[in-house]
Amino acid sequence: MDKLRRFMKENWWRYLMNLVLAGGVYWSSTWYVMTNHATANVRTLQTAFDRWVPVIPQFIIPYNWLEPVLYFCLLFFFVVHPKIFTAFGVAFIAIQAISNSVYIVFQTYVPRPTNLVAGSSRYVDALLAKYASDNPYNCFPSLHCGLSALAASFW
Length: 155
Known about the structure:
Strand order of the largest sheet: 1-2
Helix content: 55-70%
Structural class: mainly alpha
Number of strands: 2
């Protein structure tokens, strides 16, 4: 108990600063919604290789797990490692700012497969649900890749 009391006494200011930073992390995560729609200059980033690679509906599972993993990382670092949370939060906001800046000036679109049949498997249904809730814009740079790499690097 003494260690915890001393830790809190020495780090109260960091927790206070991190509360403000946590608000910034939340605020930066709302920017994506503002840019996830078609604009006048949408570029399709698709190559012949992209058309050759099949869609694997099972990949929706790790794709959908990113948000819970990020929430866990944010909460864990905030509570257990406030110094790491500070760096993680600043990097999180930077990734959001850079990505959304690119989305504003270089909007991208990725065509979605049209051959997916609803009801054919739970993975296809989950993928179609994701497609219904998220527009096909803002694909480059990938926030999934950037934020996954951020979380992995801090662990």
